[in-house]
Design brief:
single chain; alpha+beta; conserved putative lor/sdh protein from methanococcus maripaludis s2 fold; Elongation Factor Tu (Ef-tu), domain 3; OB fold (Dihydrolipoamide Acetyltransferase, E2P); 3 domains; six-stranded antiparallel beta barrel; five-stranded antiparallel β-sheet; 4 helices; 39% strand; elongated
Amino acid sequence: MKLKNIILVIAVAVLAFYGCKSSTGEVPQAETIKNVKIETVTDGVVQNTVKLNGKLKEKSLTSLSFRVGGPLIKLNVKQGDYVKQGDVIAQIDKRDYKLQLATSKAQFEQIEGEYNRYKQLIEQKKIPENTFEKIKSGYLMAKTAYENAENQLRDTELKAPFSGYIYEKFVEAYQTVGAGTPIVSIIDNSHLEVVVSVSESQLQRVKSDTESYLSVANAGITNLPVKLLSVGEKAKQDGLYEVRFSFANTQELEVAPGMTAEVTIHSALEQSQLSVAASAIFHEKTSTYVWVYNPSSNKVERREVKIALDGAQGRVNVVSGVNNGEQIVTAGVHYLVDGQKVKPIQTPSVTNIGGLL
């Protein structure tokens, strides 16, 4: 019985001892110190070449329609057909328009003869001025109706306004169509455009473009000269600016709208700008950050930066956020917290490979 009491007393004493240690905090947890790679922010000349990805786009895609309505008796094209400027694409039944032209022509010729007779009389001052004005008014109205009938008969033929390819056909032959009803759409492929999107930091470099070259992998095209066509003055909803380049299209190129393309821009800008390793950059939501290392406290501070993704050899140009000479973390950036202590990894010398000496 005494042995049981002794064991019980010892157990209570041990629990009380550890409880006191935990409550008073006399045994603190060891602070985690991570090993990290550090580099010093430096400045250098920004490269004057920018590569941008984009899409090929037709010069224009236009829907064609008649200015008059009626039964469609001819539709001379199908999707994918190539048409030359002036080719007749479709035709409306001319019957009613021929009758209208014949009627308006007869009326015009009758009134024209009367107008000429009254014109001689007014020159001889044999009729009042107001009488001649009424005849003249009728003559002008008949002339307008006749010219309009000629135009309407001419408009029964839908002609290609430029050379290109039929992209889509909206109606079939023998349908009755109204004025303004889309008949076909036509693509102008005489010139193609390359549409790319650039960030605000790249905008001035694009505007200072001296020469640009196009590459289309699926068409076997490399370094084809292109011309800067336009630069968007306002950013789109994604915050990027639309830039267009153009080039003359030929059958030898074997390219088509929608193909993925790359544009290499050579700009005249040369300026000194801070540079960091691309591995130092990390993102949270819509912001970009780096970890700045403080050698006096051995702690890191999260710092928001603004970057220009056009550095060379795995580096990124920094527009703002860090200063020349500051030290930043370049590896393990996703496993740190603000204010955490770190230990820089020493770079072994060329005579101490592996750091064994």
